[in-house]
Each structure stands twice: as structure tokens, then as C-alpha cells.
Amino acid sequence: MSGSATSSLALSEEQQQQLEAISAELEPLRAAGAPKKARSSLDSILSNVPEAEDYQLLRAALLALRADVHLDLDEPARALEDAEAAVEAGWQKSETYDAAGWANYGLDRPEAARDQFDRALELDPDRVSSLMGRALALVDVDEFDHARSDLTHAINIEGNDAELYALRGDAFIRMGKFDQAERDLIQAREIDPEESDYALQLARLMMVQGRADDAANVIDKAIEGDDTALEALLLRSHIHLLGGRNTQARADAIRASNNFPDEAFAFVQLAHVQLAAGQGNMALKAAERAVELDPSLSDAYMVRGAALHMRGDTKQAQEDFERAHQAPAELPMFLLGPCYSALEATGFQTSMRDMLNRYSEAVSGESAGEGGQTGAHPPFGSFDPMSLLGQVFDDSGKMKGRFKPFLEMAMKNAPNILKNVPPSLLKNVGGLDPSQLEDIDLSELSSDQIEEQMRQFYEMMQSGENPFEGMNGNQPSSDGDDDDPDGDV
């Protein structure tokens, strides 16, 4: 879009009055959720505006107004066309650049959106719509601290806007600052307790911190009413499943599959629940439906493979397991949204795959890796910590900068996360005894101390040592020095 962020020419007094009258006429239609009627009215008005040069600026102002209405109708391409035409004709106003910014954002062009919001804010530094829009664009290009700054500015102007707090909470999550994120999400819920998305996001945050019971209490608020989001239902189902509450987990999974019959994730979760109950045939039916709905979804093949293995169809199960491992699991990403980036750093996302291993073991009495079904698993189950840590550290043993916030969060929250993992899953973490976690407090570690602990962890694994050796109460240390679990942590 050409044109600089400078004040445009002014309308004549008569044309300004016309524009204000038209805006006043359209506002009730837009407020009543009738943007199509508003656009039809604008189309009619524009068709009657003379083409003469004296009316060029009025036409530009009306195009800018129609751009906003296009955005109401979720038609960003048409909005951008009108906004650009308005600027070209001389209507270089903050609201015009703002509309162009939102149009570009709707077209998945965050850099272009940012440029337009910059222009809008040059003309009106306190324009909340542009501060919010630029923050969203900045999040998309991983400039989280700048996004947080814009949202703080907006909150200082409109302190009762719940969405602003929720968006800043999202920025804090991506920065690994969970305490600040939780405060903002709680504030958003206090301002607008009826908005279920805020409860969902808070539950997600608690989940990745290992606070499953807190998450279960909060997620209930996101599931009240008939228009419950699929993510909320499936997250609560998974929380119940991790807590061993299979009846509740099954009820939520069935509700999700009934309410969202065309969503593969609903049937993947239903298969998880049925596998946990040892219902291989029912699990296979749900898994088949998931594969049918989305043949590219790795999670669908994973649960179908587990169901086939439970039935004894080892060859077909092996084929599905191999297919599943060709791509990352997507259900954790779907359930946890922006919080998933932190989940990856903790390794907690393996809970679903670990459950599948347990289903197979419960039925066959042996590891799913025996007999050629899925291949031998390392001591950490299907989670490969060496692969993860190899991405975190460079060849010289230094932690890569972009991982530091997440590793800091992971280390400080590790005891709580592990306390909330079902004991049967901890057997894949060196036989770690949950009781050993009670007196561990990593919350006061500095960033440098955390980096050093993680480096030692990495070096031990590279040398073939088990970094959890000695933390199990059944494995006494040899001399009380280097093997002291408190000292190692």
C-alpha cells in the first residue's frame, strides 16, 4: 500500500456531515450483527456518489468505512482492496491503516499487517485496535516481548478489556513466564466469567505445569452450556484419563464425538479411552473412524495400531505404528494450543504415547516392543531425550539461546510435573520413585544454575549413564557423595 502515515486532506464541512450521518446510520446495523445489510447500504450510497474530483475524498472515506464492514463479514481480501483504494485516494487516516492491518492479518500476512499497524499508530499512538492487532502480528513473528509491551499499553488505556489480558497472558506463556500468564488469565476471567476460552487457556497453562487437579477444576467452567469447544471437551477427557477416572473420560469423549462427528481428534481421544478400558474392538472402531476422517493424522494410526495389537493383529499393528512415527503427534498440540511450546520442553507430551504402551502391556503381559510389534524402546519409552537435548545444546555444550526460557520453566516445574504423572508412567524414567520428589525445590535456581544442571544431564546421557540413578529409593548410593540425589538436582 502506497502513501505515508500522514494526515490526509480534509472533507468539506458538508461532506463531513454526510459521512457522519452515514456512519450513524450504519452503526446500529453493525451492532445488531447485520453487516450484510450495512454493506448493501454502503454499496448503494457509493453508487450514487459522483465521480467528480470534488467527491473523491468522500468516496475514499466511504471505501474505508466499507473496508471495516468487510472485516465484520470476515472478508479480508475485499477489506484490503477497499482500504488500499482509500489510501490511494487520499484518505490516509489511522482507521484506514488499521483496517488494512487487520485485513493483512486475516490473510496470514503478519509482516504486512505489522507495517500497516505501525502507520496507524504513528497517527494515533493510543489506538487500542491497532495495538492489539500489532501485538497479534508480533506474536506470529516470535517477537513476544514487543507484543507484551503493546498489550500492556492497550491495557493501560482500556483496563476492563478481558481480551487484552488474555492476549497478554498468551504472550507471557510463549515467553515461558507462567506466573504472569496465570495472573492475566485470572484477570480476564474475572472481567468476563462467561467467556469459556479464558477458562480453557488457564486450564492448559495449569496442565503443562503439572497441576492436573487445578486444571480439572478450571476446565469445568469451559464446558458449561451447549456450545462447548471441542478442545475443552477433549482436554477434560484427557485429564480424567490421566487421573484414572475412566468413566468421566469416556463420557466427555463420547460427547465430543457426538457433537463433532466430523472431527478426527474426537475419535482419537475416544479410542484412547476405550483402550484404557481394555475395549479393543470399540477402540478399533473409533480409530478407524479417525483414520477415515483424516488419513494424514499420525495420532489416528497410533491408536489404531494399539487397538490392533490388543486384538493380536501384530503385523497390521506394526504397519500403523510405523506410519504413526512418520509425523509428530498432533493431539497434544490441538489440546494445549499456545501452551504446547512449553510442553515440548518438559517432555510431558509423551503421556499419550506412554498410555498406548501401557494398554498393550495390560493385554499382552509384555512390552509392546517385544515380538517385533513396535521395536525395542529405550529406558524412557518412545520419548527420546537425547534427540530433544541434541536440539537444545550446540556442539560445544552450550545451550542455544532460544531454548533457555523454556528449559528454565521446565526445570523449575519438573517436580510438580512428575508428581502429577501416573506412577505407572514413571517406570520409563529410570524407575523414579514419586516420594523422592516431595523435598525437591528447584524454584530458586538461577538461569545459569539451570543451564549447568541441564548440561550435566546431557553429558551423563551422552556417556551412557542414567541421570536418574540414585533417585530411586530402591537404588542406594555407593558412598553418599556424587550419587546423592539432592546434590545432583
Automatic annotation (TrEMBL):
<dbReference type="Pfam" id="PF13432">
    <property type="entry name" value="TPR_16"/>
</dbReference>
<dbReference type="Pfam" id="PF14559">
    <property type="entry name" value="TPR_19"/>
</dbReference>
<feature type="repeat" description="TPR">
    <location>
        <begin position="94"/>
        <end position="127"/>
    </location>
</feature>
<feature type="repeat" description="TPR">
    <location>
        <begin position="162"/>
        <end position="195"/>
    </location>
</feature>
<feature type="repeat" description="TPR">
    <location>
        <begin position="264"/>
        <end position="297"/>
    </location>
</feature>
<dbReference type="InterPro" id="IPR019734">
    <property type="entry name" value="TPR_rpt"/>
</dbReference>
<keyword id="KW-0802">TPR repeat</keyword>
<dbReference type="InterPro" id="IPR011990">
    <property type="entry name" value="TPR-like_helical_dom_sf"/>
</dbReference>
<protein>
    <submittedName>
        <fullName>Tetratricopeptide repeat protein</fullName>
    </submittedName>
</protein>
<keyword id="KW-0677">Repeat</keyword>
<feature type="compositionally biased region" description="Acidic residues">
    <location>
        <begin position="479"/>
        <end position="489"/>
    </location>
</feature>
<feature type="region of interest" description="Disordered">
    <location>
        <begin position="460"/>
        <end position="489"/>
    </location>
</feature>
